[in-house]
Write a structure and sequence with these properties.
The chain has one domain. Helices cover 77% and strands 0% of the residues. The chain is built from three helices and no strands. α1 packs antiparallel against α2 and α1 packs parallel to α3.
Amino acid sequence: MNRQKRIFYYLLIVLVALVVADGIITRTLIINNMAIESNPFLVEWVGSDLLLILKLSGAGLAAVILWQISQRKPRVSLAVTSIFVAFYIGILFWNLFVYFTAYI
C-alpha cells in the first residue's frame, strides 16, 4: 500500500472514531441536561442507544463510499475526507468546551 492510500485509510478510521466520539459526548451532554441536540434528524434518538448505532452506521457507510470513490479519484477523496476530519475535530472540541464549561 502506497503512502497516500495508507494516509487515506487512517483518515477514514479517524473519521469514524470522531463521529462515534461526537455521538457519545453529545448523548452525555443531553442526558445530563448540559445541552440540547440542534440536529432535527437526531433529536428523537439522542436519549437512546439508537444514536450510537445510527452514528456508527452512518460513519461506516460514509467510509465505504469514500473508499469506493478513492479507487477512481484518490486526491478528491483524500481532500474530502480531510475536510470531514477537520470538521468533526471542530465539533468534538465544541462538545468538549460545552462539557467542561457546564461545570464552571
